Amino acid sequence: WSQLLLYPTVIGVDPWYHQNVTLKIIEFATIPDGGYSHLPLFHLIIAINSLFLDLNYKIAAMFSVSIAQIVCNVLFIYLLGIFTTKNNRVGLFSALMVILADHHIYMSYWSIPNGFAAVIIPIVLYLILKKKSKARIERIFIILLLLLALIFAHSITSICMSILLISMWLLSEGHNFCVNNKKTEISIILPVFYISAMFTW
After folding, report:
1. Measuring CA to CA, which residue among 105, 88, 107, 109 is closest to residue 97?
2. H or E element at residue 199
3. Model-level pTM?
4. Would you report the helix, strand and coil content of the chain in percent, each value rounded to 5?
5. Is the pLDDT of residue 133 over 70?
6. Is 183 helix (H, G, I), strand (E, B) or coil?
7. Contacts of 164 (CB under 8 A, 6+ apart)
8. b/e burial code for range 66-105 (CB count within 10 A of at least 16 → b)
């Protein structure tokens, strides 16, 4: 954020375009036609923060999508690190590597829909891998809600998520075949539903 606060407006190339789209949403109370008319989630979140908190675009982006990127990436990479290795130190080290990664720092002050949408991926992966029988319906509902949000955020990140879901299913089936296990860890229903919804939209 120190990079952003050095200048009176946004920095970078893409943020100028996204600022323009968001300001049009605020001014005309409608989503303008264009490249992001069907992927408005990023712009709507910033517009809502700008209107309710009476902030300019840059500060609204910092206190909404930028802070979400920082907190969610660190938290869910930490949780994934602990879950996959059962080691607290690995989780902490993973979170530290995320915080120090140049792309993560860059996406935190150069706010664009692709960087914001990528935040959803580790959350969904964690919820898919972390199975709790008590809250199964709630977990599935949250996963579906996040996957739909991802579709409304950015198309490239949506395709990355579909590749990850198919890969997870294939790995699960391959593991089941190798160990002669009949129980399906990851169902094909989720990738098929998600890919159908993504291409339908």
Report:
1. 105
2. helix 189-200
3. 0.87
4. 75, 0, 25
5. no
6. coil
7. 121, 125
8. bebbbebbbebbbbbbbeeeeeeeebeebbeebeeeeebe
